[in-house]
Amino acid sequence: MRLKIKVLPRSSSNEIVGHLPDGTLKVKLTAPPVDGKANDALIEFLSKEFDVAKSCVRIARGETSKIKIVEIDE
Q1: What is the pLDDT of residues 38-48, one digit of tens each?
Q2: CB 43 within 8 A of CB 63
Q3: Given CA atoms 49, 50, 53, 59 in this order, what sign does their dihedral have?
């Protein structure tokens, strides 16, 4: 499964906020966008949300961007 995600770092909680008009998923994360901490938090959050191992979640594009393409293997 491929998801387009807009990450909102330094938020008050980790949660899925909703969808943008183009179908992009908005996700709030408490982690700051420094040294890959937000990316790590996103992978951990999505693995819990979709009930898969962290190794099944991979950022395919957008490592340094707020807009990311994430692949989830089931």
Answers
A1: 999 999 999 99
A2: no
A3: negative
